[in-house]
Design goal:
Strand content: under 5%
Largest sheet: none
Radius of gyration: 21 Å
Amino acid sequence: MEPLASHMVVHILLMNVLAPLAAMSACAFWQQGREPAGGALAFATAAQLLSLWLWHAPPLLTRALASAPLHLLMYGSLLLTAFLFWWVVLRFRGNQSWKPILSLLVTSKLYCVLGVLFLFAPRVLFTGIAGDPGTGAPTPEAVLADQQLAGLLMLTACPATYVLGGVVLGARWLFAMETEEIDRSSAGGEAWT
């Protein structure tokens, strides 16, 4: 697999698989806790989106792909901001549950826009990766195909994670409202007996 597609597979595993699973484990371990403030959600959302877009800016990603320490720093910051995002999102309950759903939808849109840029850009965005075919470096056509595959991977992972997360949180919210309504009806019925 070429460098951009390989990077994207690791990036997706970190941000879309490992981070939500780690956040779910953390939430299960610390069940007693207050619901986060709206400002925490805004901060976590902004931090994740900033990290995502900043690290995928062509000059920075090209440098990160050429430097192992910078590459590790990129993966670490992507994982950390994604964990923070999911940890805050998963702690919302009750009437405030619309906030993380909105945050997931905003994140999914901006995540997918980045994937669209990778996939449909008419030229190579990461010129530092392209090289002279005579030196054994990848051709511009090969880099463009790699970039398009990376974008396609992002577009596949986006709905599978963020939209699905929003659907699950929405379902949890509806079940909680239904349970509250049943409890309220039961309490009202007992009051009349």
